[in-house]
């Protein structure tokens, strides 16, 4: 495993950690303030959410690089299936295409896919996964032309109904293999995989060239909200060292991206404090 005790240059901020993914949360720092704070603290990169970027993708991407940071990724495509997805397939495709274009303009090498839940009325994860696979396969060439990796992110099974019919790394790797496009890979998020005893073997099956990202946070034992009560690393029950060992044992050597949804705690704190604690915990417990 890499030694991060005295070097956090491979640490990246996902701006959701400051509450920037949902209206009405966080203190509302501008992208410029986020970039400046991350650069001052020696972070390596930033992942943004589409709602922050608007029409400023080129400008923000250039500003990140001018500050000595990297744009690590962009969150995210639309939901592709289920109750939260656009109502028509064409609507899904159009929004997917817009997300690829934004990633390209921002200079984000990775675009995260959160698949969406079970198709309404189908009662079938299997059929829902087939629909996801069909859409991702159709969009992969466009993403490749734009220089963008599509990262399938399996979510914790608690989200199977509405947010993600893709709930295991096994199914994510299976989908990558079925599609067979080099730019269709997976993202591994502690919050969603900490419970999976097959994680290490599935990541080895995926291999280095199918792992596009690694996301850090923690699972609170007595969580009050499965969506908005993620823990800062070290505050929960996830075996963070073993999970990173599995990810890096499969060959991943990219950024470690902190992504914490915490409406009742971390989103209420000053962003500078959040960043400082994030760095300390990364060095000490991850």
Describe this entry's structure for a reader:
The chain is an alpha/beta fold and 286 residues long. The chain is 39% helix and 13% strand. It is built from 10 helices and 8 strands. It has helices at 31-40, 50-53, 57-66, 89-106, 125-145, 169-179, 190-193, 199-206, 240-249, 271-285, and strands at residues 11-14, 45-49, 70-75, 110-113, 149-152, 184-189, 211-216, 256-258. It has an 8-stranded parallel β-barrel, surrounded by 6 helices. Helix 3 packs parallel to helix 4, helix 4 crosses helix 5 (125-145) and helix 8 (199-206) packs parallel to helix 9 (240-249). The radius of gyration is 18 Å and the shape is globular. It starts with 10 loop residues before the first strand and ends with a helix. The model has no long low-confidence stretch (mean pLDDT 97).
Radius of gyration in whole Å, from Cα? 18 Å
Largest sheet: 8 strands, parallel, barrel
Order of helices and strands: EHEHHEHEHEHEHHEHEH
Distance between the termini: 11 Å
Summing up helix and strand content along with how strands pair, one would put the structural category as: alpha/beta
Number of strands: 8
In round numbers, the mean pLDDT is 97
Strand order of the largest sheet: 1-2-3-4-5-6-7-8
Detail the poorly predicted runs: none
- Amount of beta strand: 5-15%
Helix content: 25-40%
List the helices and strands and how they pair.
Elements: E1 11-14, H1 31-40, E2 45-49, H2 50-53, H3 57-66, E3 70-75, H4 89-106, E4 110-113, H5 125-145, E5 149-152, H6 169-179, E6 184-189, H7 190-193, H8 199-206, E7 211-216, H9 240-249, E8 256-258, H10 271-285
Parallel strand pairs: 1-2, 1-8, 2-3, 3-4, 4-5, 5-6, 6-7, 7-8
Helix pairs in contact: 3-4, 4-5, 8-9
């Amino acid at each position: 495993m890499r030694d991060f005790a005295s070097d956090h240059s491979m640490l990246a901020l996902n701006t959701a950690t400051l509450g920037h993914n949902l209206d009405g949360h966080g203190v509302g720092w501008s992208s410029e303030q986020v970039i400046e704070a991350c650069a001052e603290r020696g972070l390596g990169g930033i992942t943004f959410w589409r709602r922050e970027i608007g029409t400023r993708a080129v400008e923000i991407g250039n500003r990140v690089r001018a500050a000595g940071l990297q744009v690590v990724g962009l969150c995210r495509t639309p939901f592709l299936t289920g109750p939260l997805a656009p109502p028509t397939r064409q609507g899904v495709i159009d929004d997917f295409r817009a997300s690829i274009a934004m990633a390209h303009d921002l200079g984000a090498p990775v675009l995260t896919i959160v698949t969406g839940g079970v198709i309404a009325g189908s009662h079938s994860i299997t059929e829902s996964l087939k629909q996801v696979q069909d859409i991702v396969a159709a969009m992969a060439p466009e993403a490749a032309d734009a220089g963008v990796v599509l990262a399938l992110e399996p979510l914790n099974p608690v989200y199977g109904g509405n947010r993600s019919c893709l709930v295991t790394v096994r199914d994510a790797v299976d989908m990558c293999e079925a599609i067979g496009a080099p730019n269709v890979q997976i993202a591994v998020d502690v919050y969603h995989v900490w419970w999976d005893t097959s994680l290490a073997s599935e990541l080895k099956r995926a291999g280095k060239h199918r792992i596009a990202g690694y996301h850090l946070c923690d699972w609170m034992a007595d969580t009050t909200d499965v969506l908005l009560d993620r823990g800062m690393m070290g505050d929960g029950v996830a075996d963070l060292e073993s999970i990173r060992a599995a990810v890096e044992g499969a060959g991943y050597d990219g950024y470690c991206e902190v992504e914490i949804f915490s409406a009742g705690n971390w989103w209420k704190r000053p962003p500078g404090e959040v960043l400082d604690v994030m760095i300390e915990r990364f060095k000490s417990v991850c």
